[in-house]
Amino acid sequence: MKKNGVFEVYTNELKALYGGTDLRNSIFLYRHFSMNQFTIDLKQQAVRAEPLVKTLERIGVTYREKFLWS
Length: 70
Prior knowledge:
The protein has 3 helices and no strands. By secondary structure, the protein is mostly helical. About 0% of the residues are buried.
């Protein structure tokens, strides 16, 4: 989703559709499930006693801000 990447067109379309709306906060991004990247992120970024839903939200928001609205 980075600039000049394979998914740059997709990224730009998401920005155009949701960038100026409240819906942009409902987008969560995660690394792909291939090569177990999703699970690796989940294990590395887990915080003790934090509910899974909160961990997923935190990870998804971090990647959203990094790749869409940085």
